[in-house]
Amino acid sequence: AFTAVLVVCAVLMAACGSSGGGAAQSDDGRTVLRYQGWASEVTFPELAEDLGYYDTVKLEWVGDTISGPQDIQSTATGDIEFGSAFNGAVVKLNAAGAPITSVLSSYGADEGEYTGYYVVEDSPIQSARDLINKKVGMNTLGAHHEFIVREWLAQEGLTNDEINTVELTVVPPVNTEQALRAGQIAVASLNGIHRESALERGGIRPLFTDKSLFGAFSYGTYVLRDDFIAQNPEVTEDFVQGTARAIRWTQVTPRDEVVDRFREIITSRGRNENTKTIEYWRSPGIPVPGAVIADRELRTWIDWLVRNGELEPGRLTAEDLYTNKFNPYANGTYSAGSGPDGEAVGTK
């Protein structure tokens, strides 16, 4: 089910191994980090730059993506300096031999943000067993939605053979709700604006959510290439500290203030984007102060892949895949109760 990540990396492993760890310099002497954004959204690194939290880093946007696996593949091959994806995809790419390391969490589920898996109100589907031979719509395969759906089905008692009868179908996020209401899919994966606007219209109900599976949990991480980290430790530290502080800023700042800042950033960058999406922002989706990575957030997916026969037991451990040493909320620079500038604060 997750061959896309493996195939792409297998084809490109020569590039993965040979990509240089150096990075370009801006006219003012900053190190340029290329990255991909998300249309009509503000990423945490973009916010960090806008807040002035980087000392030596300058970001260079090279385009948008709609796929976490593609984003970290581009990082591994040296097309960009950093990317973010669901931790299951990060584990898969590491297992394929990609020289990448996770340096801080990038998204997850908290009190305000989560992904729901919805059916229409009058759907006969009430349980996992009712999904046998049914279609579940999601934005991409081999990432968050696929892993979560398969994990829920397994926890609900379906066998691997039964799980494989559930048809996971790629549907663009802007069309997912419509496909559900039109009966083209039985279940729709919805989050952010797509979830909130669909709920406003009514007539749908959640079958389950990712938060119902694991509670407050970080699901994805930012990754850098190992050679980049080795050759640019000070730049890596600056990128991580600035991004961690930006995440912390969203964790302790009133929602309306965060939304206003996001709107200003989107408007000022001039990419002809719709700022309506930002109005539906609820929370950062990262429950841990400063996005410090927890061992279980990667170990869960290593265990999942081993259990499903897609990874040899003992091949990888969570400690192999991430480091918190650059994160100021983990290395002693700031306490967990600190704000983005080290001040004592409470969460909002």
Features:
three-stranded antiparallel sheet; 18% strand; 348 residues; 39% helix
Describe this structure in words.
By secondary structure, the chain is an alpha/beta fold. Helices cover 39% and strands 18% of the residues. The protein contains 13 helices and ten strands. The relative contact order is 0.18.
Task: Walk me through the topology.
Blueprint: H1 3-18, E1 31-37, H2 44-51, E2 57-64, H3 68-76, E3 82-86, H4 87-95, E4 100-109, E5 115-120, E6 135-138, H5 144-155, H6 160-163, E7 167-170, H7 173-181, E8 187-191, H8 192-201, E9 204-209, H9 210-214, E10 217-225, H10 226-231, H11 233-252, H12 255-269, H13 295-307
Parallel strand pairs: 1-2, 6-7, 6-8
Antiparallel strand pairs: 3-10, 4-10, 5-8, 5-9
Q: Helix and strand succession?
A: HEHEHEHEEEHHEHEHEHEHHHH
| Spatial gap, N to C terminus | 40 Å
What percentage of the residues does DSSP assign to strands (E)? 15-25%
Helix content: 25-40%
- Secondary-structure content class: alpha/beta
Spatially, the strands of the biggest sheet line up as 7-6-8-5-9
- Mean pLDDT across the residues is 91
* Radius of gyration over all CA atoms, rounded: 20 Å
| Main pleated sheet | 5 strands, mixed
Given as residue ranges, the uncertain stretches (5+ residues, pLDDT < 50) are 1-19
Q: DSSP helix count?
A: 13
Number of strands: 10
What characteristic shape results from the CA principal axes?
Answer: globular
